[in-house]
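Chapter review: from sequence to fold.
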Amino acid sequence: MTTITKLVVCILISLAFTKAQGQEIKTDSTQQSTNALKIETLINLKSKIESEEREFLKTEITAINKRLDNKEITAAEAEDLKKEAAKIRALNIENRLAIIDNKIALLERNNNTESTDDGYTFRIGGDENTGESFIYLGEKSKDKPRKYDLRTSTDFVFAFGFNNALIDGENLEDSPYKLGGSGFIELGYAWKTRIFDNTNFWRLKYGFSLQWNKLKIKNNNYLVNTNGDISLQEYPIDADKIKFRTTNLVFPMHLEFGPSKKIDKEDYFRYSTHKKLKIGLGGYAGLNLGNMQKIKYKEDGEREKEKQRDQFEVSELIYGLSGYVALGDVALYVKYDLNPIFKNQVVDQNNISVGLRFDMD
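The C-alpha coordinate string follows.
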Protein backbone atom coordinates (compact mmCIF):
# COMPACT_ATOMS: atom_id res chain seq x y z
CA MET A 1 0.00 0.00 0.00
CA THR A 2 1.49 3.37 -1.04
CA THR A 3 1.83 6.35 1.20
CA ILE A 4 -0.91 8.20 -0.69
CA THR A 5 -3.23 5.20 -0.40
CA LYS A 6 -2.60 4.95 3.34
CA LEU A 7 -3.31 8.65 3.68
CA VAL A 8 -6.65 8.33 1.80
CA VAL A 9 -7.69 5.34 3.95
CA CYS A 10 -6.89 7.24 7.13
CA ILE A 11 -8.92 10.24 5.96
CA LEU A 12 -11.90 8.02 5.06
CA ILE A 13 -11.75 6.23 8.43
CA SER A 14 -11.59 9.55 10.22
CA LEU A 15 -14.56 10.95 8.30
CA ALA A 16 -16.62 7.80 8.93
CA PHE A 17 -15.84 7.93 12.65
CA THR A 18 -16.76 11.63 12.83
CA LYS A 19 -20.04 11.02 10.97
CA ALA A 20 -20.93 8.09 13.28
CA GLN A 21 -20.25 10.27 16.33
CA GLY A 22 -22.50 12.97 14.89
CA GLN A 23 -25.30 10.51 14.21
CA GLU A 24 -24.99 9.08 17.72
CA ILE A 25 -25.15 12.57 19.27
CA LYS A 26 -28.13 13.43 17.07
CA THR A 27 -29.87 10.13 17.95
CA ASP A 28 -29.29 10.65 21.66
CA SER A 29 -30.70 14.17 21.46
CA THR A 30 -33.78 13.02 19.52
CA GLN A 31 -34.40 10.13 21.89
CA GLN A 32 -34.14 12.41 24.93
CA SER A 33 -36.71 14.75 23.38
CA THR A 34 -39.04 11.85 22.50
CA ASN A 35 -38.81 10.33 25.99
CA ALA A 36 -39.46 13.71 27.62
CA LEU A 37 -42.62 14.12 25.51
CA LYS A 38 -43.80 10.63 26.45
CA ILE A 39 -43.20 11.32 30.15
CA GLU A 40 -45.16 14.58 29.99
CA THR A 41 -48.02 12.86 28.18
CA LEU A 42 -48.13 10.03 30.72
CA ILE A 43 -48.29 12.49 33.62
CA ASN A 44 -51.30 14.14 31.98
CA LEU A 45 -52.83 10.72 31.44
CA LYS A 46 -52.94 10.01 35.18
CA SER A 47 -55.63 12.61 35.83
CA LYS A 48 -57.57 11.41 32.80
CA ILE A 49 -57.61 7.86 34.19
CA GLU A 50 -59.11 9.05 37.47
CA SER A 51 -61.83 11.03 35.66
CA GLU A 52 -62.61 8.08 33.40
CA GLU A 53 -63.05 5.61 36.27
CA ARG A 54 -65.29 8.10 38.11
CA GLU A 55 -67.49 8.36 35.01
CA PHE A 56 -67.73 4.56 34.84
CA LEU A 57 -68.73 4.48 38.51
CA LYS A 58 -71.33 7.19 37.93
CA THR A 59 -72.89 5.16 35.10
CA GLU A 60 -72.97 2.00 37.21
CA ILE A 61 -74.60 3.79 40.14
CA THR A 62 -77.26 5.22 37.80
CA ALA A 63 -78.05 1.69 36.61
CA ILE A 64 -78.28 0.44 40.20
CA ASN A 65 -80.62 3.29 41.13
CA LYS A 66 -82.84 2.46 38.19
CA ARG A 67 -83.08 -1.16 39.35
CA LEU A 68 -83.99 0.13 42.80
CA ASP A 69 -86.68 2.42 41.34
CA ASN A 70 -88.12 -0.53 39.41
CA LYS A 71 -88.21 -2.51 42.69
CA GLU A 72 -85.95 -5.20 41.25
CA ILE A 73 -83.62 -4.95 44.26
CA THR A 74 -83.96 -3.73 47.84
CA ALA A 75 -82.34 -0.59 49.25
CA ALA A 76 -79.83 -2.72 51.17
CA GLU A 77 -78.90 -4.66 48.05
CA ALA A 78 -78.50 -1.39 46.14
CA GLU A 79 -76.17 -0.03 48.81
CA ASP A 80 -74.03 -3.19 48.72
CA LEU A 81 -73.82 -3.02 44.92
CA LYS A 82 -72.73 0.62 45.06
CA LYS A 83 -70.01 -0.15 47.61
CA GLU A 84 -68.74 -3.05 45.50
CA ALA A 85 -68.70 -0.89 42.35
CA ALA A 86 -66.81 1.88 44.18
CA LYS A 87 -64.26 -0.63 45.49
CA ILE A 88 -63.64 -2.03 41.99
CA ARG A 89 -63.19 1.42 40.48
CA ALA A 90 -60.78 2.46 43.26
CA LEU A 91 -58.67 -0.64 42.60
CA ASN A 92 -58.78 0.08 38.88
CA ILE A 93 -57.42 3.59 39.49
CA GLU A 94 -54.67 2.23 41.73
CA ASN A 95 -53.59 -0.44 39.23
CA ARG A 96 -53.76 1.77 36.16
CA LEU A 97 -51.77 4.55 37.85
CA ALA A 98 -49.15 1.99 38.90
CA ILE A 99 -48.75 1.01 35.23
CA ILE A 100 -48.24 4.67 34.30
CA ASP A 101 -45.69 5.20 37.10
CA ASN A 102 -43.72 2.13 35.98
CA LYS A 103 -43.75 3.38 32.40
CA ILE A 104 -42.46 6.81 33.49
CA ALA A 105 -39.72 5.19 35.58
CA LEU A 106 -38.68 3.05 32.60
CA LEU A 107 -38.45 6.11 30.33
CA GLU A 108 -36.47 8.11 32.90
CA ARG A 109 -34.07 5.24 33.48
CA ASN A 110 -33.45 4.88 29.74
CA ASN A 111 -33.40 8.59 28.96
CA ASN A 112 -30.73 8.37 26.24
CA THR A 113 -31.78 5.09 24.66
CA GLU A 114 -34.93 3.71 23.12
CA SER A 115 -36.48 1.28 25.58
CA THR A 116 -37.24 -2.23 24.46
CA ASP A 117 -40.76 -3.55 24.03
CA ASP A 118 -42.27 -3.87 27.51
CA GLY A 119 -45.63 -5.24 26.43
CA TYR A 120 -47.40 -1.89 26.28
CA THR A 121 -48.36 0.20 23.27
CA PHE A 122 -48.06 3.95 23.56
CA ARG A 123 -50.02 6.14 21.14
CA ILE A 124 -52.21 9.22 20.90
CA GLY A 125 -55.47 9.09 18.96
CA GLY A 126 -59.17 9.85 19.02
CA ASP A 127 -62.29 8.13 20.28
CA GLU A 128 -64.40 7.11 17.29
CA ASN A 129 -67.62 7.38 19.35
CA THR A 130 -67.21 10.76 21.05
CA GLY A 131 -64.67 12.45 18.81
CA GLU A 132 -62.54 13.36 21.85
CA SER A 133 -58.77 12.94 21.84
CA PHE A 134 -57.23 10.37 24.10
CA ILE A 135 -53.87 9.01 25.19
CA TYR A 136 -53.65 5.26 25.00
CA LEU A 137 -51.33 2.83 26.78
CA GLY A 138 -51.73 -0.91 26.27
CA GLU A 139 -54.49 -2.86 24.53
CA LYS A 140 -57.81 -1.20 23.78
CA SER A 141 -59.87 -1.19 26.92
CA LYS A 142 -63.00 -3.29 26.91
CA ASP A 143 -64.09 -1.78 30.19
CA LYS A 144 -67.05 0.18 28.82
CA PRO A 145 -70.38 0.13 30.61
CA ARG A 146 -73.18 -1.64 28.75
CA LYS A 147 -76.34 0.24 27.99
CA TYR A 148 -78.67 -0.67 30.83
CA ASP A 149 -81.78 -1.14 28.69
CA LEU A 150 -81.38 -1.85 24.96
CA ARG A 151 -84.95 -1.52 23.66
CA THR A 152 -84.16 -1.75 19.93
CA SER A 153 -82.32 -4.57 18.13
CA THR A 154 -81.63 -5.23 14.45
CA ASP A 155 -82.03 -8.22 12.11
CA PHE A 156 -81.16 -9.22 8.58
CA VAL A 157 -84.25 -10.58 6.82
CA PHE A 158 -84.20 -13.32 4.18
CA ALA A 159 -87.32 -15.00 2.82
CA PHE A 160 -88.14 -17.27 -0.11
CA GLY A 161 -90.95 -19.54 -1.28
CA PHE A 162 -93.85 -20.01 -3.68
CA ASN A 163 -95.42 -17.17 -5.62
CA ASN A 164 -98.57 -16.83 -7.72
CA ALA A 165 -101.46 -14.50 -8.50
CA LEU A 166 -105.07 -14.39 -7.35
CA ILE A 167 -107.29 -13.41 -10.29
CA ASP A 168 -110.84 -12.11 -9.96
CA GLY A 169 -113.35 -14.83 -10.79
CA GLU A 170 -110.77 -17.65 -10.91
CA ASN A 171 -109.53 -20.24 -8.46
CA LEU A 172 -105.84 -20.56 -7.71
CA GLU A 173 -105.89 -23.97 -9.43
CA ASP A 174 -106.96 -22.25 -12.65
CA SER A 175 -104.11 -19.72 -12.51
CA PRO A 176 -102.21 -19.25 -15.80
CA TYR A 177 -98.99 -19.33 -13.76
CA LYS A 178 -97.25 -22.51 -12.66
CA LEU A 179 -97.05 -23.08 -8.92
CA GLY A 180 -93.78 -25.04 -9.08
CA GLY A 181 -91.82 -22.61 -11.23
CA SER A 182 -93.08 -19.38 -9.68
CA GLY A 183 -91.33 -18.05 -6.60
CA PHE A 184 -90.25 -15.04 -4.59
CA ILE A 185 -87.14 -13.85 -2.75
CA GLU A 186 -86.93 -11.09 -0.16
CA LEU A 187 -83.82 -9.49 1.33
CA GLY A 188 -84.02 -6.76 3.92
CA TYR A 189 -82.98 -5.13 7.17
CA ALA A 190 -85.28 -4.66 10.13
CA TRP A 191 -85.36 -2.96 13.51
CA LYS A 192 -87.33 -4.39 16.45
CA THR A 193 -88.38 -2.10 19.30
CA ARG A 194 -90.00 -3.05 22.59
CA ILE A 195 -93.17 -1.01 23.01
CA PHE A 196 -93.65 -1.03 26.79
CA ASP A 197 -91.13 -0.42 29.59
CA ASN A 198 -91.70 -3.48 31.75
CA THR A 199 -92.73 -6.16 29.27
CA ASN A 200 -91.36 -7.44 25.98
CA PHE A 201 -94.56 -9.21 24.91
CA TRP A 202 -95.40 -6.50 22.36
CA ARG A 203 -92.78 -5.36 19.84
CA LEU A 204 -92.80 -3.19 16.73
CA LYS A 205 -90.78 -4.55 13.78
CA TYR A 206 -90.02 -2.26 10.85
CA GLY A 207 -87.43 -1.81 8.11
CA PHE A 208 -86.92 -2.06 4.36
CA SER A 209 -86.75 -4.95 1.88
CA LEU A 210 -86.16 -5.77 -1.76
CA GLN A 211 -88.73 -8.23 -3.13
CA TRP A 212 -88.43 -10.21 -6.35
CA ASN A 213 -91.75 -11.82 -7.38
CA LYS A 214 -91.51 -14.28 -10.29
CA LEU A 215 -94.34 -15.90 -12.28
CA LYS A 216 -93.75 -18.81 -14.66
CA ILE A 217 -96.38 -18.74 -17.40
CA LYS A 218 -98.15 -21.95 -18.48
CA ASN A 219 -99.11 -23.38 -21.89
CA ASN A 220 -96.50 -21.55 -23.99
CA ASN A 221 -98.27 -18.25 -23.33
CA TYR A 222 -96.58 -14.88 -22.87
CA LEU A 223 -97.66 -11.41 -21.80
CA VAL A 224 -98.54 -8.88 -24.48
CA ASN A 225 -99.14 -5.16 -24.00
CA THR A 226 -101.71 -3.89 -26.51
CA ASN A 227 -102.21 -0.15 -25.96
CA GLY A 228 -102.16 -0.62 -22.19
CA ASP A 229 -104.23 -3.82 -22.18
CA ILE A 230 -102.18 -6.69 -20.73
CA SER A 231 -103.19 -10.11 -22.01
CA LEU A 232 -101.80 -13.62 -22.40
CA GLN A 233 -101.27 -14.89 -25.94
CA GLU A 234 -99.65 -17.98 -27.38
CA TYR A 235 -96.00 -17.53 -28.28
CA PRO A 236 -95.36 -18.00 -32.03
CA ILE A 237 -92.91 -20.88 -31.47
CA ASP A 238 -92.45 -23.49 -28.76
CA ALA A 239 -90.62 -21.79 -25.91
CA ASP A 240 -88.59 -23.64 -23.31
CA LYS A 241 -89.43 -21.20 -20.54
CA ILE A 242 -91.42 -17.95 -20.17
CA LYS A 243 -91.21 -16.00 -16.91
CA PHE A 244 -92.34 -12.59 -15.70
CA ARG A 245 -90.67 -10.83 -12.76
CA THR A 246 -91.29 -7.67 -10.77
CA THR A 247 -88.77 -6.00 -8.45
CA ASN A 248 -90.09 -3.92 -5.54
CA LEU A 249 -88.62 -1.81 -2.76
CA VAL A 250 -90.96 -1.95 0.24
CA PHE A 251 -91.01 -0.76 3.85
CA PRO A 252 -92.65 -3.44 6.04
CA MET A 253 -94.06 -2.86 9.51
CA HIS A 254 -95.34 -5.61 11.81
CA LEU A 255 -96.76 -5.74 15.29
CA GLU A 256 -94.89 -8.69 16.78
CA PHE A 257 -95.95 -10.41 19.98
CA GLY A 258 -95.01 -13.47 21.97
CA PRO A 259 -93.17 -14.59 25.11
CA SER A 260 -89.52 -13.85 25.85
CA LYS A 261 -86.92 -14.60 28.50
CA LYS A 262 -85.55 -11.79 30.66
CA ILE A 263 -81.80 -11.88 31.22
CA ASP A 264 -81.07 -9.80 34.32
CA LYS A 265 -77.52 -8.74 35.20
CA GLU A 266 -76.13 -6.34 37.80
CA ASP A 267 -75.67 -3.40 35.44
CA TYR A 268 -77.96 -4.23 32.50
CA PHE A 269 -80.85 -6.43 31.39
CA ARG A 270 -82.03 -7.87 28.07
CA TYR A 271 -85.02 -9.75 26.69
CA SER A 272 -84.36 -12.81 24.53
CA THR A 273 -86.85 -14.38 22.10
CA HIS A 274 -84.47 -17.21 21.16
CA LYS A 275 -86.49 -20.42 20.54
CA LYS A 276 -89.68 -18.57 21.53
CA LEU A 277 -92.98 -18.40 19.61
CA LYS A 278 -93.33 -15.13 17.70
CA ILE A 279 -96.30 -13.86 15.70
CA GLY A 280 -96.12 -10.81 13.46
CA LEU A 281 -99.06 -9.09 11.77
CA GLY A 282 -98.81 -6.04 9.57
CA GLY A 283 -98.14 -4.89 6.06
CA TYR A 284 -95.86 -3.00 3.72
CA ALA A 285 -95.80 -0.16 1.22
CA GLY A 286 -93.26 0.86 -1.37
CA LEU A 287 -92.42 1.31 -5.03
CA ASN A 288 -91.98 -0.90 -8.06
CA LEU A 289 -88.40 -0.67 -9.37
CA GLY A 290 -88.91 -2.57 -12.61
CA ASN A 291 -90.40 -5.54 -14.44
CA MET A 292 -89.12 -8.00 -17.02
CA GLN A 293 -90.45 -10.84 -19.16
CA LYS A 294 -87.82 -13.42 -20.14
CA ILE A 295 -88.43 -15.93 -22.93
CA LYS A 296 -86.07 -18.82 -23.66
CA TYR A 297 -86.43 -20.81 -26.89
CA LYS A 298 -84.49 -22.62 -29.60
CA GLU A 299 -84.18 -21.37 -33.15
CA ASP A 300 -82.25 -23.29 -35.84
CA GLY A 301 -80.83 -25.46 -33.08
CA GLU A 302 -79.43 -22.47 -31.18
CA ARG A 303 -80.56 -21.41 -27.73
CA GLU A 304 -81.98 -17.90 -27.72
CA LYS A 305 -83.09 -15.58 -24.95
CA GLU A 306 -85.39 -12.56 -25.22
CA LYS A 307 -85.75 -10.02 -22.43
CA GLN A 308 -88.52 -7.42 -22.41
CA ARG A 309 -87.89 -4.81 -19.72
CA ASP A 310 -90.45 -2.37 -18.33
CA GLN A 311 -92.90 -2.91 -21.19
CA PHE A 312 -95.95 -3.70 -19.07
CA GLU A 313 -98.45 -1.60 -17.14
CA VAL A 314 -97.20 -2.61 -13.70
CA SER A 315 -98.56 -0.80 -10.63
CA GLU A 316 -95.99 1.73 -9.47
CA LEU A 317 -97.24 1.92 -5.88
CA ILE A 318 -96.89 -1.35 -3.96
CA TYR A 319 -98.83 -2.04 -0.75
CA GLY A 320 -100.16 -5.14 0.95
CA LEU A 321 -100.65 -7.28 4.03
CA SER A 322 -98.17 -9.72 5.53
CA GLY A 323 -97.69 -11.89 8.56
CA TYR A 324 -95.49 -14.59 10.02
CA VAL A 325 -95.46 -17.23 12.73
CA ALA A 326 -91.98 -18.09 13.98
CA LEU A 327 -90.30 -20.41 16.43
CA GLY A 328 -86.87 -18.96 17.00
CA ASP A 329 -85.34 -17.50 13.84
CA VAL A 330 -87.43 -19.43 11.26
CA ALA A 331 -90.98 -18.38 10.36
CA LEU A 332 -93.83 -19.36 8.08
CA TYR A 333 -94.36 -16.21 6.03
CA VAL A 334 -97.31 -14.97 3.93
CA LYS A 335 -97.62 -11.71 1.98
CA TYR A 336 -100.40 -10.46 -0.30
CA ASP A 337 -100.33 -7.39 -2.56
CA LEU A 338 -103.50 -5.32 -2.27
CA ASN A 339 -102.46 -3.45 -5.40
CA PRO A 340 -103.02 -5.29 -8.71
CA ILE A 341 -99.96 -6.48 -10.61
CA PHE A 342 -101.11 -4.61 -13.73
CA LYS A 343 -102.91 -1.29 -13.35
CA ASN A 344 -106.07 -0.18 -15.16
CA GLN A 345 -107.07 -3.69 -16.26
CA VAL A 346 -110.57 -5.14 -16.63
CA VAL A 347 -109.62 -8.10 -14.41
CA ASP A 348 -107.26 -7.54 -11.48
CA GLN A 349 -104.42 -9.90 -10.62
CA ASN A 350 -102.92 -9.69 -7.14
CA ASN A 351 -99.60 -11.23 -6.18
CA ILE A 352 -99.55 -13.71 -3.27
CA SER A 353 -96.51 -15.40 -1.69
CA VAL A 354 -96.07 -18.18 0.87
CA GLY A 355 -92.71 -19.33 2.15
CA LEU A 356 -90.08 -19.31 4.88
CA ARG A 357 -88.61 -16.23 6.52
CA PHE A 358 -85.34 -16.02 8.46
CA ASP A 359 -84.61 -13.10 10.82
CA MET A 360 -80.92 -13.25 11.72
CA ASP A 361 -79.41 -10.83 14.24
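Two observations follow directly from the output. Residues 3-136 form one domain. The radius of gyration is 36 Å.
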